[in-house]
Amino acid sequence: MDSTEVPTTPENNLGSLRWGQILTKVLFAGVWVFLAIQLAPHLAAIVGIETGYAATPEIEVSTLDGTVLTSADLEGKVVFVNFWATWCPPCRVEMPLLQRMALRHRDAGLVVLGLSRDLDSPDKVQAFLDERGITYPVAIVGRDAEQRFGGVRGYPTSFLLDRAGRIRHKALGPLAMLSFEPAVRRLLAEPTGGAPPQVP
Question: Which pTM was predicted?
């Protein structure tokens, strides 16, 4: 046996096993922390805890059909703003559900607004929407639009604005169309120009 070779002993094997278990537990805990951080805004929207910061971002976009949509046009509406892209698989998953949400609450005063971060031509983005039967307004925007909403860390990211244009909820991930449903109903039930949310 080579004199530099460490002999294998039960103690060495036990030490390696313990380190393996520790690393597994650390990784497992890290995954749970990550999921908790990601899911917290969704759970908050379900139970009514606001995760927005009551800012009133200025909206002025030109939708793919050539309509200029501004904050003034959306005044008095509850607005679900969804930053997305055609190359984003989770975005594709949630879009049909957002379409159904838009139709379900349209008469009550909900507007779903898609803000695409695509670099493709408007015609390609429109073709993508047509294939999926998406009819809510969509505009192609740049980084400046994200900054008006306080920044976006990934796609899809959704914001829910009340009838006064204040951000009341924000969440990253494709669950927003489900977790935001109770929040949408609550905001639609609020009177126009209701009292601003209380900041702790």
Answer: 0.73
**Residue type, position 88, single letter:** C
Contacts of 99 (CB under 8 A, 6+ apart): 112, 132, 133, 134, 135, 136
Q: Where are the domains of the chain?
A: 44-189
Residue with tokens 């046009």: 73
| Percentages of the chain per state (helix, strand, coil), in multiples of 5 | 45, 20, 35
* Cα–Cα nearest to 163, from 137, 138, 184, 139: 184
For 43-73, how does the pLDDT look when each residue is reduced to its tens digit (9 = 90+)? 444 545 556 567 899 999 999 999 999 999 9
CATH number of 44-189: 3.40.30.10
Q: Is 84 helix (H, G, I), strand (E, B) or coil?
A: strand
From CA 64, how far away is CA 107, in angstroms rounded?
A: 22
Angle at 54 between CA 140 and CA 185, to 5 degrees: 80
How far is the C-alpha of 166 from the C-alpha of 138, rounded, in Å?
Answer: 20
